[in-house]
Fold this sequence. Notes:
This protein has 647 residues and is α+β, with helices and mostly antiparallel strands.
Amino acid sequence: MKLAFPSVIFRYQKDFTLLTDLDSSLRLSEPSRQLIAQVALDKNYLILQATKPISSISGTLDYTISIARGLWLKLLYGYLALACLCLVLAAIAYKYQALQNLAAIVYSKLPSQLAFSSESRAFDRRILALCAVVFLVGFGLRWWYMGQKVDLHGDEVWSVAITSHSNACLWGGACEDGVYYGKEIKERELWHSKDASSALKDIANLYLTNNGDSHSHANLYYTILRLWHIGVRTGDIEWIIQRGVGLNFLLFYPLAFLFAFLLGSRLFGNSVLVPVFLALALCNGASISATMLIREYALQECLFLGFGWAMARYFCSELESRRAIILSALLIACFLLSGYFVVLYVGMLFALLWFLSLGESPKKAKLLLAMLGLAVVFTYMLYPIYHKGFVGGHATSALARVGGSDTSLLESMRVYGQILGQNIFTPLVLLALLVAAFAWYRGLGSSVYKRYLHSKEAFFALLLGGLAVVFGAVIMFVAPWKILRFVVGCLPLVSLLIVVATAPLLLQGGILARVVVVMLGASLLLYHQVGYLRYPHYADFRSEPIYQMEPILDKERENDKEIPTIYSHSSDYGATRAIIYFNDLRLYHFIKDPREALKSLAACEQCYFITALPMEAVRKGLGDGFSVELTQATFGLYRYYVQKREI
């Protein structure tokens, strides 16, 4: 029997695992009721070889019916969304003149002067020196923490498996039976080829299909990661950490700093506000944590800043040149390819800027639409199946959680508040804001207040930061998991709010200004928590929920090389917490069929058994002649120590 599902709708990993594990347990506990002889994957087809007529297994396949119903609902929602968009566009076209008049009224109420337009664009050497110090501090912190990273998150392992097109136990394939040394299986599953031709094939596959991950992620980060690893063939975890984090450290961090510097100089001119913004944006624990994670979030943080700079140039200047519009559109396309959730931020900012531009100059508003249209064209040129991310994967998870029983707005905002309080609005930062408010109340900095806070730059900085806060709140609510990574990219823009709030006092100078600077610097040092470095102990992993670092299978047991290890599991996410920590010099027996695995176990005096089967099924399959001890459990996988009883 061959069941076909649209690959962009049906995320097969989870459901295949559930089906396979259910049937495997059934085989061992009640062999007479075995319904499915084999489950296999062929592209977007699920192939079942049944031992009984289809009517006998209809109950086992109930989930396929719900998927079919869900597909109809998704199509209906899609058509409704398209119809609503057409109605909105028609209303705008019909009431264009009235909308333009309203925009002109709103725009006339906003600041129109540039605070730093008359200043020289040449930077004060002292300001440049401070910026250089901030860069070196951020560079040094990332270098030090990179040396502290010892474990890989399961998603980081998937980054490598997807990028290298491994198609085996870790991603999108099947575990083939065989006996492998740990070093051999890790190289096969991870960076398995160092040829340039193989890298080009992998990149072509990412361009066309994203190696089966098109439902959740775009291809930009994977493509850059594959180019970064041309010539590399390894399964060594330490080397993978150094190379993977090194990409974030040596490429994305300098680019993020450059974009932040350009954005800061555009909004804050040649002033002390620029290094303050750089420090708050890129030296906090969240930003460093993003660098430590071998995923797309350091790239996304970099492009959040790049997008902000491109829009600041547009809003705070006269009409852009054709070349500037093309380059900005390309930058926006890269930003869209850094993650599907950023579409919300792009949409919010573009809608507001288009409305305000309509009040300033209709021609400028048309140029903004042209920039957006060109960005969409560039996006599809770089990734032709970009739209698939909106009908599956995280998009489906997000829609399912909105209004669902497992979604709590209060809990989402609590976690979001924890992230902001831990990384941006720390107690010392809040105290610094109180000092700035006191200074403003007493009239200190009043000479700067009207000059800067009543300017286009200050308004745009507040707009960027305010939308970043709203974006983070919405994403935290709809995200599949309430964790740091989904909102870490927007946090540098949130820090703009702090800079604007303290700007009058800092620009005025004096003792209170120095006190505020010391408070902000001390905040970065004292409230400095970096994640994604290692898995905590099982009892403690809940203490770091915003990083979602679950335990792995104990690496120390891998040193018992004289004890055989049988691995019986299909391709699944749980394998990311086991295979990459195998001992290089140890033999591992890969046996997919649990019945065959139990036969091999019965032939051993003692053995480790890694599987997804529950202990009851293993004990029942082996009989009373063996003792079965659960040594560790993690994310759907169990490690048992099996020993033959003495008679």
